[in-house]
Specification:
56% helix, mainly alpha, globular, 158 residues, 4 helices
Length: 158
């Protein structure tokens, strides 16, 4: 039977792979293209912005787990800073390295039951990771939806 740590590792790794595969399909001129805004809809962002938000959530979580600093990576993940597919791919790689390093702190599934302040209240590490994967996949799903508005290419699957 797979351990919870292995399952989280596989889920985060798969999410990273899908983001990188999608990024390869997006021409740089469409990376920050936004659909038109409708008065009664939520704020629309571009594929690039959603991919950055997805990776940023993972970075924030593993920064919090490893250093207890729950900084929002918003400032250093702005489109002005990461303006091309190449720069975003480098950021995704950095986040994946941070995530992989953070996961090595857990030696057994029992470690996932430990509580820590995250960032506003005590939660188990399991809850933190579960919320992170859900939020990161949510942003990635929005990137997929925006991509389908301007492309007929198949979406990455895994």
């Amino acid at each position: 039977m797979n351990s919870q740590i292995e399952i989280f590792n596989r889920q985060f790794s798969s999410l990273n792979s899908r983001s990188n595969e999608l990024l390869k399909l997006i021409p740089d001129e469409r990376l920050f293209w936004k659909p038109r805004q409708l008065n009664k809809s939520f704020a629309m962002f571009s594929c690039g912005e959603y991919l950055l938000r997805s990776a940023g959530k993972i970075e924030q979580t593993f920064g919090g787990i490893t250093t207890r600093l729950w900084d929002d990576p918003f400032e250093w993940t702005l489109p002005e800073e990461l303006s091309t597919g190449t720069l975003i791919a480098e950021y995704l790689s950095e986040v994946e390295q941070t995530r992989s390093k953070g996961m090595t702190l857990f030696s057994s599934d029992e470690d996932l039951q430990k509580e820590m302040p995250a960032p506003e209240k005590l939660q188990t590490i399991f809850e933190i990771l579960l919320e992170t994967i859900a939020r990161a996949e949510h942003f990635q799903g929005r990137a997929f939806a925006v991509f389908q508005m301007f492309s007929d290419d198949k979406l990455p699957r895994r």
